[in-house]
Specification:
There is one protein chain. The protein is of the alpha/beta class. The chain is built from eight helices and nine strands.
């Protein structure tokens, strides 16, 4: 409990630094961010955090990076979060609700350890496991899979995109297995990756 208190005390005392990201010198910002991460890792070394700045406030997201064994740790930490003015404190990455940028192809690429991917250019096909017909599996298809296939971080990069799309808990609990491959030409079975959430809702309601 002491480590949880230490984390929230530091965040409360320095929240204005993270609120004013664009107005704080980079070196000062990095120091505060590194300190916050270090205190978080004293509580649990495998948790992570994301800060999203908005016009009239900001959001602090505590994430388990999709690891279901750490979900209780995240929930406990956020349960004890103080009320901080202009801040929303959230457990887990939540599902993306505005898909317009993906439909229009105006989404920004995410660069992860040199792997650049855009959700609007990613597709998937459902995969069935004959031994476990209720398990939902997908094969994610990338335009530049051949370029990145030997990069050990590729799977992580794809997982992060999917977590952002469907939410961290759904990613961990509802998808049994994921394959990755090269996107080749037209295929009537292809589904845009940004439609994964609606596809899952349809499948699970059957």
């Amino acid at each position: 409990m002491k480590k949880i208190t230490t984390f929230w005390n530091y965040f409360q005392q320095n929240n204005f630094v993270f609120l004013l990201l664009n107005e704080i010198p980079n070196d000062e910002l990095k120091t505060h961010f590194d300190n916050l991460i270090e205190i978080l890792h004293q509580y649990n070394k495998d948790l992570d955090l994301i800060i999203k700045n908005k016009n009239n406030g900001a959001e602090l997201i505590i994430t388990a990076n999709g690891n279901p064994y750490l979900f209780k740790e995240v929930e406990l930490l956020v349960h004890h979060a103080p009320v901080v003015e202009r801040w929303k404190i959230t457990a887990f990455l939540q599902p993306e609700t505005n898909l317009t940028k993906y439909e229009n192809g105006t989404d920004k690429p995410l660069d992860y350890y040199g792997i650049t991917l855009r959700i609007s250019e990613m597709y998937f096909i459902p995969i069935e496991n004959p031994n476990k017909p209720t398990d939902l599996g997908i094969k994610v298809l990338l335009k530049n899979y051949i370029v990145h296939k030997d990069n050990p971080r590729l799977r992580e990069a794809v997982y992060i995109h999917i977590e952002h799309l469907i939410g961290e808990k759904s990613f961990a609990n509802d998808i049994a297995f994921i394959e990755i491959g090269q996107l080749e030409g037209e295929d009537e079975n292809l589904i845009e990756l940004y439609n994964l959430k609606s596809y899952m809702v349809r499948v699970m309601s059957k």
